[in-house]
Each structure stands twice: as C-alpha cells, then as structure tokens.
C-alpha cells in the first residue's frame, strides 16, 4: 500500500502508524491497571506488599521465568523464519516483541501477523504470515491437548455446575460446523485472506519434519514455564496446594480462556474470569486469583511490550531486496 507513495509521505505515514501503536498500547495498559472494575489498583498493590511479593528473591525468580518464557518464544520464531531467511537472535527478538506491542489492541492479537511480516521484504511476507500461523497453531495445540486433559480431571475431581443440555447442544453445533467446513473444503478452492487451503497445506507439508518437531517442543517448554510461574505465584500468596492439583486448574483455565475469541483488551478479563471460577472450587479467594492474573499479565505482556515499544519506534522498512 505504501510502495507507490513518495519517500517523505511514506515516512510520515510510518511515523503515524508507530505513534498510533505506542499510544494505543499505552492506553490499553493504563486502562487495565488504573480503571479496572474487578481489581482496585491501590488494593492490588497493598495486597502485594502484604504478601511480600516484592522481595528481591521473588522478583528475581519471576523475572527469570518471564525471560525464559520469551526466550523460547523468540527461539521458536527464529527456528521457523530460518526456513526462508537467516536472521540473528536479536532480529527475532525485535520482531517478536514488536509484534506483541502492535497486537495488543487487535482482535485475537492478529496484528502480530502484519507486524512481523512488515519486517521482511515483500517477497517473504506471505510465507512469514504462514510461519507465524504455524507458530501460533502449535502453541494453541499444546494448550488444547493439556487443557482438555486438565478439564476432564477437574470435572472428575470437583462437582462442576454445568448445564449438560446447553453443553451438548454446543458440542453438536461445533461438530456440524466442522463437518460442513470439511465438506466445503473438499468441494472448492476455499481461501483465507488470499491463501488457498491447498497452498497452506502444501506449505506446511514441505517444511522439514525437524522444524515441526522443534516448534512443538519449544511450545511445550513455553507452556511449562508460564504455567509453573502461575503456580509459583500461588505459593508466594500462601496458597497451600500441590503442583498436580494446581496444574489441573491452571491447564483448564488456559484452555477455557483460549477458545473464546476476543480483543486483547478483553483477553485478560476472560482469563481472570475463568481463573476465579475454577479456583473457587479449590477454596482460593477471588482477590488472590485476580492479583496473580494481573501479575502474570504484567510480567508476560506489559513488560515485554515496553521493550517492544522501543523496537516499534526504531523500525525501518526493509530494503526491496533483502
């Protein structure tokens, strides 16, 4: 879209886009922290101080977990991108955090696709979008597999208040949509944003098996890190719960919140609602879960997005031949 514009006009539009991303992300963070109807900011900070969350030991370990969480995400992205172009770890870091910042105010963080693609010359962009799709599908697959197991165990251990008629009706609708979708894909050249299903499948098939295996393993490692981080925060807040029981609830929470499409601004609210609902069966009070969910968001989204803002502000369009 910007390719035919004069150089100065192009730079002006890029500057406006950069500022819009930063302002939008900043407003989202501000609104989430200071205008949260579910958790008063003063009450939140007082609760953290009371539970000694701000001790040097706790802060250091929590930050280490967040660093490793994003280290493996960046490594996963670097591993995928190098199937089309060699990039350094720092370049992968810039693209990952820049994409995170740009995606905060978009539905289901879809802005991450465009943000990462624009770091590459035009000839790479469609493949970059598909690689990002593969990265996200793998992470979602891990969340779904572990989450379904966790939800089954949770249901078997606790008396969940589920309306089976509505639940079964929803399952039937999902199955019906899946069947008709599969039939439709076989009968026509269905396209998603200009990508035919045939092309997407062909692209995935031609990636080396080593890439698929590595991507899935890195997704599992990431899941293990941020789920353990949630468990560690439970321990900090004095919740007496073993790791197995906590993981059943944590995996169920991530699964339930991930299957609901939403704007990033509502994503935290959905996760928080799922967490409060599930952990109430374990006798854990709402304030503790709200505080932990907010801290998880601060550590794994807000903090990386601050660094991502720097990368967004320093972004330069790639050369035509890169």
Explain briefly what this protein structure is.
With 322 residues, the chain is mainly alpha-helical.
Question: What does it look like?
Answer:
With 322 residues, the protein is mainly alpha-helical. The protein has one domain. It is built from twelve helices and two strands. The chain has a two-stranded antiparallel ribbon with strand order 1-2. β1 and β2 form a beta hairpin. It is globular and about 55 Å long. About 3% of the residues have low confidence.
Primary descriptors:
322 residues; transmembrane helix; two-stranded antiparallel ribbon; transmembrane; cell membrane; mainly alpha; membrane
Radius of gyration: 21 Å
Q: How much of the sequence is in beta strands?
A: under 5%
Order of helices and strands: HHHHHHHEEHHHHH
Strand order within the widest sheet?
1-2
Q: How far apart, in Å, are the first and last alpha carbons?
A: 19 Å
Helix/strand-derived category reads mainly alpha
The amount of helix comes to over 70%
Number of strands: 2
Uncertain stretches: 163-167, 262-266
Mean pLDDT across the residues is 79
* Shape designation: globular
Largest sheet: 2 strands, antiparallel
Please count the helical segments.
Answer: 12
What is the total domain count?
1
